[in-house]
Structure formats: structure tokens, C-alpha cells
Specification:
Layout lengths: L19 H11 L2 E2 L7 E2 L6 E4 L1 H20 L2 H23 L5 E6 L3 E2 L3 E9 L6 E7 L5 E6 L4 E9 L4 E4 L3 E5 L6 E7 L4 E5 L12 E2 L16 E7 L11 H5 L5 E6 L4 E6 L8 H18 L2 E6 L2 E6 L2 H12 L7
Parallel strand pairs: 1-12, 5-13, 17-18
Antiparallel strand pairs: 2-4, 3-12, 4-6, 6-9, 7-8, 7-11, 10-13, 11-12, 14-17, 15-16, 18-19
Length: about 350
């Protein structure tokens, strides 16, 4: 008997080719999203609402079928009346479930920037433009967390959704499902809200990244040399050296497991810091960005003027919270296409 060739043997189907997860993803891609208006708000119209019976609704349909068949078989008029009343209530319930989403206005607002690994926050505002109270609205956020909302007539409510970040760049909120089973739970209606809200995700700061030596500001009386030791102004942190005074240890940094760091103090002469890509040694791009992020935070805490030099981009010397955010955002979007 001839042995079958290897080409004739059945090859196993690729894993997940016809899986449930792939089917759900295709169905979700086919569903229409509520588009954004010119003002950034999504308004739920008729063609964007989907509705299906729930488990209770399917059970009621089975009961109605049994009671209808029994009433017709035994010519029971009271049973027919009871069946028609229940069917009419189910139809009215389906209409009210659909109306609970119709005309709803939703818009999303991004929260402040976060570091990679932290939770980004988005604020969703729901508003009823008419005079219809809306109960039992449910927002499904990250990982399927349900946020129930009840709207009074003409009112608006805010809901905060959190999204776990993994890498630097821009974290988008994406599509947010809103569903309802009001009033009887026989039908479930839902719509998919499209959102363009994005949060800037900064690189995760390295535990320790020593600052480069400061230089004297232009026009200073002592343009050469460093600041020297003193006790007037805080210069910045440095690594611990044997013999340093315990009073100058940064105990908060030690509690954050950043090691022994000493606070440096100097005279009253203004100085400048340049945080340079070329001066940071690292094995890869992400590690270098992480160390530069730590240097930006340390320079901001030192209240000195500092600038940032990246390949193809330079942020001039400045200080303050807006400058700190600009530097961190430049690190977050380094090497990525602008939006």
C-alpha cells in the first residue's frame, strides 16, 4: 500500500481563523459609528442605533408563542387577549428602548498627560438636548467596566473613563459603546460613539539620571566655572559621595527607590542647563528618552532655565510648568508622525 505523500496530508487550519474573537471583531468593524460634528460632539441619529432582544425578551417571546398556540387550540378568548396585551407591551418597550438613545449628545475631553504605565483619563459628557429624561444609560469603558448614567430632562452628566497606557506617544480613547435596556429589560439598544480625544503619554522616567554640569548664564559676571558649593539656591541632584552630610540627602527620592541622591546648593548666580541627546549614553532609544525624561523632571524641580536638544529639534532655554510639558511632549512624540 502506497504511503500518502506529505502534500496530501491535511494541514491544520490556522489558529483563530474562524474564532469567535475574529468574528466579533469583523462584526464590530461593520457597525456604523456615530460621527463627530463640527463642534466635536457626537449626536445619535436613527441609523446609528442597534437593538436586539435580551434573554428575558427571548423568554417572553417563547411564552407568547405558547400562550397564542394554546389559546387558538382551545379557542380561549381570554388567553388571546392576555397574549395580545403582553405583545403590545413588548412592542412599546422596544420603542421606548430605542428612544432612550435617540438624539443623545456625547463629546469627549482628554485629561492631562501621563507617564507610560499610568492610567490616562478621559471625560465623557452626555447631554439631553430635548425634554426627555433618560434612565439606565451604560457606558462601557476600558476592560468592559460599566459606568451607569441617568440623565434628567435637558441636563448633562460627566463620566470619567480610564485607559491603561503601555507605551509613549498619543493614547486615543477610540470607540465608546453606550447601551440601555430601559424600561423593562426586554431589549438591549446600543450605539458606538466615535471619539478623537487623545492623551499625551510621556516616556517612563528612569530611576536615576544625573543632570549635566550647569553653565553660567550669558552676561554673568563669572561666565566661566561652576557655581560652587553654597547654601543659597538649589542647583540640582547628584549621586551620593562618601562624606556627604545626611542633611542634604533627598529622603523623598530614597523613599521612591531612586537610591541615595544629594541635593546640591550654590551661590546666587543664575545658571543654565542643556539636556542633550548626544550626552546621554544608553543602549537603545527608549532608554535614552527615559533618562532624558528624568533629567527634565529634575531640572524643573531645580527651578533653573534649561533647554532640550533632540535630533532635528531644539527647545530653547526656559523654565516653568508650560516648558516642562513641552519638553516631555517632545520626548513622547520623538520619532513618531505628527497628528
Amino acid at each position: 500500500m502506497a504511503r500518502p505523500r506529505s502534500d496530501d496530508r491535511r494541514r491544520p487550519a490556522p489558529a483563530g481563523r474562524w474564532g469567535i474573537g475574529r468574528l466579533k471583531a469583523r462584526l464590530a468593524a461593520m457597525m456604523r459609528r456615530v460621527p463627530l460634528g463640527r463642534d466635536g460632539a457626537a449626536r445619535v441619529a436613527q441609523r446609528y442605533i442597534f437593538i436586539l432582544p435580551t434573554g428575558a425578551g427571548l423568554m417572553l417571546a417563547l411564552v407568547l408563542f405558547v400562550t397564542l398556540a394554546g389559546s387558538l387550540n382551545y379557542q380561549n378568548n381570554l388567553g388571546l387577549l392576555f397574549t395580545f396585551i403582553l405583545a403590545a407591551a413588548a412592542v412599546v418597550s422596544m420603542h421606548q428602548t430605542w428612544l432612550n438613545l435617540l438624539g443623545l449628545e456625547v463629546w469627549a475631553t482628554p485629561g492631562p498627560g501621563v507617564f507610560a504605565g499610568d492610567d490616562a483619563q478621559f471625560t465623557l459628557t452626555l447631554r439631553d438636548p430635548g425634554q426627555r429624561a433618560r434612565a439606565d444609560l451604560r457606558l462601557r469603558g476600558w476592560l468592559g467596566r460599566v459606568h451607569p448614567v441617568a440623565l434628567a430632562a435637558g441636563a448633562q452628566e460627566r463620566v470619567t473613563l480610564t485607559v491603561t497606557t503601555e507605551r509613549r506617544g498619543h493614547q486615543a480613547l477610540g470607540t465608546v459603546p453606550i447601551e440601555t435596556e430601559f424600561p423593562l429589560g426586554l431589549f438591549r439598544a446600543w450605539c458606538l460613539i466615535e471619539s478623537d480625544a487623545r492623551v499625551v503619554v510621556y516616556p517612563r522616567p528612569a530611576p536615576v539620571a544625573p543632570l549635566p554640569p550647569p553653565v553660567a548664564a550669558a552676561g554673568s559676571a563669572r561666565a566661566q566655572g561652576d557655581r560652587g558649593e553654597g547654601a543659597d539656591d538649589f542647583v540640582g541632584p547628584r549621586g551620593y559621595r562618601p562624606g556627604d552630610s545626611p542633611r542634604r540627602l533627598d529622603w523623598k527620592a530614597l523613599a521612591r527607590e531612586r537610591g541615595l541622591i544629594v541635593k546640591q546648593f550654590g551661590g546666587d548666580r543664575a545658571e543654565e542647563l542643556w539636556l542633550d541627546w548626544e550626552q546621554v549614553s544608553a543602549a537603545d532609544v527608549e532608554t535614552r528618552l527615559s533618562r532624558l525624561a528624568r533629567q527634565v523632571l529634575e531640572a524643573a524641580e531645580a527651578h533653573v532655565r534649561y533647554g532640550l536638544r533632540l535630533p532635528g529639534r531644539t527647545l530653547p532655554l526656559d523654565s516653568g510648568e508650560p516648558h516642562r510639558q513641552r519638553c516631555l511632549e517632545a520626548l513622547a512624540t520623538f520619532g513618531q508622525d505628527p497628528l
